[in-house]
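Request from the bench team (R.T.):
"We need a structural guess for the complex before ordering more flavin-adenine dinucleotide. Sequence and SMILES attached. Just send the tokens back."

Command: build protein-flavin-adenine dinucleotide structure.
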Amino acid sequence: MDRRIEQMKTEGTRFRTGVAVGTDVTWEQLRRRYDAVVIATGATVPRDLPIPGRDFDGVHFAMDYLVPANRVVAGETVENQIHAKGKHVVILGGGDTGADCLGTAHRHGAASVTTLAIGKQPPAERAGHQPWPTFPTLFEMASAHEEGGERTYLASTVEFVGENGKLTGVKVAETEFVDGKRLPKAGTERIIPADLVFLSLGFTGAEPAGITEQVSAEFDGRGNVTRDGYYMTNTEGIFVAGDAGRGQSLIVWAIAEGRACAAAVDKFLMGSTILPAPVAPTDRAIAVL
Ligand SMILES: Cc1cc2nc3c(=O)[nH]c(=O)nc-3n(C[C@H](O)[C@H](O)[C@H](O)COP(=O)(O)OP(=O)(O)OC[C@H]3O[C@@H](n4cnc5c(N)ncnc54)[C@H](O)[C@@H]3O)c2cc1C
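Reply to R.T.: structure attached below.
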């Protein structure tokens, strides 16, 4: 396997893009070979919705739809691609991932695309209790939304329905608050026809495979790799930056963390650094709840 690491060094990015750290080469091997290793593998574990009918053919995690679709656009050949042409598509979750599913389904020629969100429709303008520069909760109109599709709020998905193992619809209910929790309201259920459902309900953290067993890096209760104030995990010389340490976030944070982590690694290796560290691992957008 050490030979493989040598290959990684000599063959450059063409080879490196195909290496799965943790399996093709272990984190421990990398750590032995290099004085510092940065885990920047993102937060890719998707949040599931374990309700009746979850196993029906047609219910997919969003990334299982989006990644192959991107590969096809990039000119690769993908077998068994999930394709939305002529299909009724329901997207669960109204965030960036859901918007990407929406745009992709339209480009595939879906018969209809409906996005369901359990919360209420956010206001179009910044609410008084979220003044600048706090991060406001707003009704977002991404370019994908401008292209069409229906957006339904306050919709709780209670069941996937189907026939012979194949998805035919999504049973949703209106919601009501009971004891501070938003719950499905009895008697309001209806079925939305669906051939495909994409679960874009967020991510529960970094993929742990290999990281814990191979270099004993710990995870916190939110599924993120823990780090100290200098981006180092509990294992000396192993650092973590981006979504893997912060949780699913935004590209600007990943860029800023990458730079700050580089400075931390430089200081670890050289004893001091002049590199900029634009953010600390604990920094967050200013929010008013
Ligand atoms: C569908 C979707 C839409 C988004 N839209 C937006 C948006 O519009 N605007 C915005 O600001 N942010 C958006 N985000 C969030 C943004 O993409 C992330 O916050 C950002 O990319 C995190 O950067 P990162 O470098 O930490 O991780 P990533 O960008 O996730 O990069 C991780 C890399 O590590 C690789 N990798 C993972 N595991 C291994 C392994 N074991 N071995 C080798 N390589 C590995 C992956 O293939 C990937 O290339 C979106 C996220 C998703 C999922």
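Two things stood out. Residues 19-22, 40-42, 66, 96-97, 100, 207, 242-244, 249-251, 254 surround flavin-adenine dinucleotide (CB under 6 Å). The radius of gyration is 22 Å.
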